[in-house]
Amino acid sequence: MTFSKVCIYGAGAIGGWIGARLAQQPGVKLSVVARGATLAALQQHGLRLHMATPNAAGAVGAAGNASASPANTLPLCVPVKASAQPADLGVQDLVVIAVKAPALAEVAQHIAPLIGPHTVVLTAMNGVPWWFLQGFGGAYANTPLASVDPQGRIAQNIPAQHIIGCVVHASCSLRGPAEVQHHFGNGLIVGEPSGEVSPRVQALHALLQSAGFDATLSPQIQKDTWYKLWGNMTVNPVSALTGATTDKILNDPLVRGFISQVMLEAKAIGAAIGIPIDQQPEDRHAVTRKLGAFKTSMLQDVEAKRAVELDALVGAVRELGQIVGVATPFTDALLGLARLQAQELGLYPAA
Fold it and tell me: What average pLDDT does the segment 18-47 reach?
């Protein structure tokens, strides 16, 4: 299988980074679905990417988390076909969905013109995806998750057979519309929700490697998703609540103890559905500490008055706990506090 027609749906920091790198591959024609200032910028000067120098700090990051920009970057400008209407772009070989979770319902409503019988839809997003239990989870397999797909419309509009999961380990931010700054990290983990090593996922893995990503082919993409979530689901909302950078969060023993309890609940849920985590919370805290002081993506969203992705990061964990019968009092408290704050700020739907 080849991927000559590639479309990015969500030309933000991560989507722009992935798209610009893929567009450098021979035979790849890049399209982007965008609106407003981003669409105007794409039509005027294409997609711009400033890559961090090879010695930029850090090799493992959380998508969207921005630290200080490296002093030296290598600019890259990529021409794209951009439109606000997916129908203008036609059926694609590969569609990369790289939006924040609150925007996904609208994407699903309009994505149909991009999807043909053999189109691969790569979900490069944070948190628990709507397809998380598709063909996975033992007795819980194929259970829908109302927290991330309340009416089941996302699953209806993006059929399961098209999906390949993706976990991003990189940090990027936007300098301006359609202008991406890569900070650190270069990892993309991809895998079929079923765990099958299919010809299409092998072809996609090869394309990503050819494009210069540190691409890994996962036999269980849900486990990779869950491990990344294990850190993001706590530090993100706590930073949004407090305004603190990650170093301050982890340096406070009471706060660190609280988020460790949330992580232990998530660890128990993972074990119940077949994705055990061998580490302890303090092991993951040590990984986060190595990244230095940075503002999480959720704190950046709060400061920019953008909708926060609480459902995918925390709400889905609570729902999974209810499904498997694991009590989640600490997760419930974190979700309740973060949700109330976001509602008061107008960044989350009112109850």
Answer: 96
| Selection from 254, 339, 248, 345 nearest residue 296 by Cα | 248
Distance CA 201, CA 196 (A): 9
Residue ranges per structural domain of the chain: 5-219, 223-344
pTM beyond cutoff 0.85:
yes
> 5-219 has which CATH code?
3.40.50.720
Cα atoms found within 13 Å of the Cα of residue 329, Cβ hemisphere only:
1
* CA–CA dist 255, 61 (Å, integer): 21
Q: Give catalytic residue positions.
A: 228
Domain range 223-344, its CATH number among 1.20.1530.20, 3.30.360.10, 1.10.1040.10, 2.102.10.10: 1.10.1040.10
Q: Are 120 and 99 in contact (CB under 8 A)?
A: no
Beta carbons of 277 and 88 less than 8 angstroms apart: no
Check if the beta carbon of residue 200 is closer than 8 Å to that of residue 164.
Answer: yes
* Structural element, H or E, at residue 289: helix 281-290
Q: Per-residue pLDDT tens for 126-165?
A: 999 999 999 899 999 999 999 999 999 999 999 999 999 9
Cβ atoms within 10 A of the Cβ of 4, count?
Answer: 12
Which H/E stretch holds residue 237?
helix 221-242
* DSSP code at position 98: -
CA atoms within 13 A on the CB side of 319: 21
**What does residue 5 show for φ and ψ, rounded to 5 degrees?**
-105, 110
pLDDT band at 243 (very low <50, low <70, confident <90, very high): very high
Say how far apart CA 293 and CA 25 lie, in whole Å.
35
Q: What pLDDT digit, counting tens, does each position of 45-58 carry?
A: 999 999 987 544 33
**To 5 degrees, how large is the angle CA 157–CA 158–CA 163?**
175
The pLDDT, as a whole number, for residue 57 is 39
Rounded CA-CA distance 246/235 in Å is: 7
